[in-house]
Request: fold
Amino acid sequence: MLLALCLFSFTASVAQSTNEAEHLLAIAQEETSADLVALDSTSPLVEAGMTSAPSFKATSEYANVDEYIDENLIYPEEAKLIGSDGAVSVRFEILENGGIGQIAILNSPDESLSEAVTQLIQEMPKWSAALAGNTPMKTVYQLNVNFRLQ
Reply:
């Protein structure tokens, strides 16, 4: 039986410049062994004034981001046929309006798995944006999605 298990972890931080976004990615990549990627509390990305983290908006279909991924991730047939599995690390922006901004695949065992995760993120419902005080702000999330054949 083929079963796609979707396990993921995520982290959020504020990206105020390209250099800071790259710094976030470097930190996240160093912490791949943990389920929850913990950022250094002294990181300028964390200290940029974020008073509340972004959150996935519950809908009538999905109570949380876990349910969204479990219900919508499609294991590509070509990846199944060649036995491709493993983790796809993706970084995406959550914009001030809660929409999804730039998406970047950081690491993937197979192009078809990368495409499946990119499509999943592109179609994701809007989030509640992070706040700096009462002002919505753009944040960067990293999500690791694991594909496993069983």
User: Anything to note?
Assistant: Residues 7 and 133 are 32 Å apart (CA to CA).
